[in-house]
Design a protein that fits this description.
Length: 144
């Protein structure tokens, strides 16, 4: 068991739920450049499970479900726009991604700006209210 634990790879993969997961996938591809690693259709044109990659990172998402697990999720629109999570995407060129986000009609929450800690970043909201911050700050390099 100890040898098995040493060889196991650990990572964190954020997960999200969307009312219209197909549209969310298209938006995430168009705005940030995510790629479909796997997309599994669910009943009635829903998305049962999707894995999207960006560089060495991944998110998983699916359509909202009224099941035992799904009842624990609330979308920002169900909480008067209040969010309980946000995602940060590390990029090499924040200005290029910002231009792409504007062209795609993303709702800007925080315009692109230089931060005191050396990052150039911005924040947008996706069509269902989840916020996404994008910037050049890379915590692996900053502390490594």
């Amino acid at each position: 068991m100890a040898d098995e634990a040493k060889t196991m790879r650990s990572s964190v993969i954020p997960t999200l739920r969307y009312r219209d997961a197909k549209t969310a996938i298209d938006w995430l591809e168009k705005v940030f450049g995510f790629a479909r690693h796997a997309v599994y259709e669910g009943p009635g044109g829903t998305i049962g499970h999707a894995e999207l990659t960006l560089g060495s990172g991944m998110i998983m998402l699916g359509s909202t479900k009224d099941d035992e697990y799904g009842r624990h999720f609330k979308l920002p629109g169900e909480l008067d726009g209040v969010e309980t999570r946000s995602s940060y995407i590390v990029v090499g060129d924040a200005d290029a991604v910002y231009a792409r986000a504007l062209k795609a009609g993303a709702t800007v929450l925080r315009s692109i700006q230089n931060m005191d800690y050396g990052s150039r970043e911005f924040t947008v909201r996706d069509p269902e209210g989840h916020s996404w911050s994008v910037g050049t700050y890379d915590p692996w390099k900053a502390h490594g």
